[in-house]
C-alpha cells in the first residue's frame, strides 16, 4: 500500500484526473490531499464534486488550505471575503453557477470536515502551510497559522545547508516530526517544477495554480508523479497567473 501526498489543486480538475491516472492510483492507496482545492482554474466546484465521490471509494485525508477557508466562509454566509476575491475567489463563485443549493450545503459540510493538520503513525506531519509553536502543532495559538504560515518552509530552506540537527541553532519545531509535508508555497518561487526537500520538510505544491504542474508523491519511496502544466490543460484561462498562456505565446 502506498501513501500518496497530493499538492495544491486550485480548480484544475483536468490535472487531478491526469495525475490519478499517471500515478495508477488503486483502492489500496491512501491519498493525503494538502489543501487549496479551489481558486485558479475554472473547475473549483467540480474538483470538490470529484473529491466527494473519490472519498467514498478510497482512503482519503483532506487537509484544509487558506483558499478552502475562504470558500467555506462564502458557502456558509453567502458573503465573499474581499481578500478572497482578489485571490481567485471570483472564479470559484462562478464555478458554482450550476450547482444546486442542496449540493452547496453538502460541499460546505465537506469543507467543514477538512483537517487543519494530520499526523500519521510514523510521526509524519501533513499541514497545508506550516506551524510556529516550538512545542508542536498541539500548542499552536492560531488556527490560521496552519494554512497561512510561510516561516516553517523559509526556515527549513534557510537552514538546510547551514546547520546540522545536533546544532543548538537547529529549530526545535522541526525536531518534533519524522517528516513534514506542506503545500501553499509554490516551488516555482524557488525555480523548481519538482517537489522540494529542505531538512525534513517536503514541499509538494509545484505551482499548479500558476504555470506549474500538479504533483502526487509516494511518501515512502519518494517516487512522484506529475500532471501536464495546467496552463496547457486550460489554454484559454489564466489560472492565478497575471497572463494567459495565449498571451504569453503571443496568440
Ligand atoms: Mn495555500
Q: Measured on Cα atoms, how large is the radius of gyration? A: 18 Å
CATH class identity: Alpha Beta
Going by CATH, the homologous superfamily would be Metallo-dependent phosphatases
Averaged pLDDT:
94
**Strand sequence of the main sheet, in spatial order?**
3-2-1-9-10
User: Which stretches are low in confidence, meaning pLDDT under 50 for 5 or more residues running?
Assistant: none
Structural category is alpha/beta
CATH architecture: 4-Layer Sandwich
The SSE order reads EHEHEHHHEEHHHEEEEEHH
E-strand count = 10
Written description of the protein model:
This protein is α/β, with parallel strands linked by helices and 251 residues long. It has one domain (3-249): Metallo-dependent phosphatases (Purple Acid Phosphatase, chain A, domain 2). The protein is 36% helix and 16% strand. It is built from ten helices and ten strands. The strands form two sheets. The protein has a five-stranded mixed β-sheet with strand order 3-2-1-9-10. A five-stranded mixed β-sheet has the order 4-5-6-8-7, with helices on one face. Helix 3 crosses helix 5 (101-112). The longest helix has 14 residues, at 44-57. The relative contact order is 0.18. It binds manganese (II) ion. Manganese (II) ion (MN) binds at residues 8, 36, 65-67, 128, 184.
Q: Would you kindly provide a brief summary of this structure?
A:
By secondary structure, this protein is α/β, with parallel strands linked by helices.
Provide the fold topology:
Blueprint: E1 3-6, H1 13-22, E2 30-33, H2 44-57, E3 59-62, H3 66-77, H4 82-95, H5 101-112, E4 117-119, E5 124-127, H6 143-148, H7 151-159, H8 172-175, E6 179-182, E7 196-198, E8 201-203, E9 213-218, E10 224-229, H9 230-233, H10 245-249
Parallel strand pairs: 1-2, 2-3, 5-6, 6-8
Antiparallel strand pairs: 1-9, 4-5, 7-8, 9-10
Amino acid at each position: 500500500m502506498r501513501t500518496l501526498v497530493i499538492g495544491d489543486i486550485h480548480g484544475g480538475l483536468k490535472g487531478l484526473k491526469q495525475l490519478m491516472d499517471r500515478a495508477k492510483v488503486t483502492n489500496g492507496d491512501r491519498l493525503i490531499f494538502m489543501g487549496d482545492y479551489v481558486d485558479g482554474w475554472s473547475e473549483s466546484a467540480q474538483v470538490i464534486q470529484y473529491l466527494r465521490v473519490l472519498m467514498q471509494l478510497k482512503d482519503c485525508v483532506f487537509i484544509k488550505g487558506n483558499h478552502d477557508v475562504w470558500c467555506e466562509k462564502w458557502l456558509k454566509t453567502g458573503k465573499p471575503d474581499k481578500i478572497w476575491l482578489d485571490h481567485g475567489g471570483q472564479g470559484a463563485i462562478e464555478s458554482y453557477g450550476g450547482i444546486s443549493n442542496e449540493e452547496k450545503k453538502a460541499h460546505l459540510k465537506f469543507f467543514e470536515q477538512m483537517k487543519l493538520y494530520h499526523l500519521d503513525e510514523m510521526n509524519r506531519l501533513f499541514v497545508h502551510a506550516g506551524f510556529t509553536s516550538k512545542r508542536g502543532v498541539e500548542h499552536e495559538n492560531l488556527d490560521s497559522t496552519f494554512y497561512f504560515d510561510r516561516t516553517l518552509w523559509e526556515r527549513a530552506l534557510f537552514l538546510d545547508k547551514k546547520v546540522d540537527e545536533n546544532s543548538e541553532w537547529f529549530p526545535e519545531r522541526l525536531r518534533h516530526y519524522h517528516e513534514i509535508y506542506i503545500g501553499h508555497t509554490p516551488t516555482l518561487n524557488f525555480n523548481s517544477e519538482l517537489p522540494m526537500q529542505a531538512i525534513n520538510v517536503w514541499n509538494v505544491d509545484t505551482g499548479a495554480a500558476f504555470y506549474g504542474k500538479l504533483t502526487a508523491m509516494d511518501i515512502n519511496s519518494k517516487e512522484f508523479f506529475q500532471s501536464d502544466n495546467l496552463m496547457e490543460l486550460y489554454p484559454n484561462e489564466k489560472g492565478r497567473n497575471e497572463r494567459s498562456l495565449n498571451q504569453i505565446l503571443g496568440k
